[in-house]
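Narrative summary of target 7.
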Amino acid sequence: MRFLVLGSVEAWTTPHHKIALSGSKLRTAFAALVLARGRVVPDSRLSALLWGEEPPTTSAAQIQTYMSRLRQLLGDHAEVVRQRPGYLLRLPDGPGQEGTWDTDVAEFEHFAALGRDALAAGEADRAADLLRRALAVWRGPVLGGVTEFLAEAERGRLEEMRLTVLERRIDADFALGRHAELVSELIGLSAAHPLREQLCGQLMTALYRCGRQADALTVYQDCRRTLADELGIDPTPSLQGLYQSILVAAPVLATPGEAAPRAEEHRQAPAELPPALWDFTGREQEAIRLRTQLATRPRAGTPAVGVVTGMPGVGKTSLVLHVAHQLVDDYVDGQLWVDLRGSSSSPLDPADALADLLRALGVDSRDIPAGLPERTRLYRSTLADRRCLIMLDDAAGAWQVRPLVPAAPGCGVLVTGRSRLSALEGVRPLVLGTFTRAEATALLCRTVGEERLAADPESAEELAEACGGLPLAVRIAGSRLAARPHWTPRSLADRLTDPRRTLDELCLADLRVRDTLEAGYRRLAEPAQRALRMLARHDVPSFSARTASLLLELPLDAAQDVLDLLVDDHLLEPVEGENRGYRMHRLVRAFGLERATWGEPGREQHTALDRAGRPHRRLVSKRGEVA
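Modeled conformation, tokenized:
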């Protein structure tokens, strides 16, 4: 007896006798029982698999008819049992010798599990053979001849099982040095499954090992574009790490058996820090504090940790990179950098960040465990005797940072984030404020040139004031001024003082103040977004919590909670002193007014202009309507 679903749905009582399962409904009922693996399939699920969301009034009677028909067809070879609230298929006791499997699914899973274990044990030859035996069970598109409802419910799961085993078999072939034989197969598989990054990475590896580095890099770029176009996402950190490894011809990509130095014998120190800004300005006291924190280790078994938080565009990353480059000589075993994407809609998973860090530290990808706890332990063990500086940029919260902090006292960690990160144990974050007028003017001088600003220093100060002292805004304004010799500082300052065009003017290529504020706004819960829009209308230097409760039409306690959310993300600033309250940065206010006036920007409104690198201009008619 053999029941088949990994192809067309069939039942064979002997190798030469096939049971006639006529009609898609009967095949569906049979396949549903086989896939349940001895568990009860409720009547409600059978009905959904047979007729979808609109079963006939006679569905119960028809299900009984199908089950009765199956009993007749199967005879003594299997038993269809009524067990409320549904039915189950009872097969004879499990398989005896290999080759006597009752179902093709059971045979597939048996050899797949053996192959997985062999691969984990380093028995690549045996693993490849076992995984090929598992894949040979498949006879074509699964669940042939069943209803669309069952196919939709089960095909995805079964196909995922097949692809996972196929990827493992390819890994086994890689371990056996068969990369040249894999190229053509992987090209076809990647074309059939363009969103499957594991196959893309395997094709990149095969091409690289065949001496086709340029083709491997092209595959990555094609995959990156496909993911962006289809899903609006970037490749995973693991695929990005593979791309970087191919760029630098990392030894870890060498073909097994090649004469390559072992990681233990030759450990190249990673140097992943992005370049510091050549025109870094101000922040002397903040830099001293960070360097002091990195030099102070509170107790044994604890690394030095410095955390910088602040509003979007305030220069957190610039400050930390400036300090990190000053400390390079103190961390002789390398410097690591990870973008945690905390301000995006999909922050980096700590497990993916650990995989990226471990690869940078020389750990073979095949030796990286799957789970977060296991990766954390391996990461801390790898760093136990090293002096490394780890920069964690744009953290979403303490949950993302904790697994990435090593235990080695010789290591240092620098963290940036928009949220306050107060939950990190034993750390007092440095809250970075905006530039003083002198610092903002100094950055303008470096960007535009002292000679040009010396003719009208008062206008330069007005321009710095119009930027609200926000370093990103000052840098954009200075760069625009430098690119337009016919502009004067006063003309640009006048443009920025018009609230209807402030954020439009603070835009240059991929640098946009609006985008950084948008990312922070998207992180907020809806009540906090609403509060930001409503408070932006209240154009006063500062306001109290009671005033906010009246403006927001909320009880004082509820208004205080919402204000705290905005403070935590640095979109409001608490005012100290006698008149305790809150104030809103002028550019945050301009952003809030946009949202209050125009609502959420439409997709069409942004896309074309973004790609051209121009500002988001909204055309407003004389009647005040958005054109």
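Residues 178 and 206 are 9 Å apart (CA to CA).
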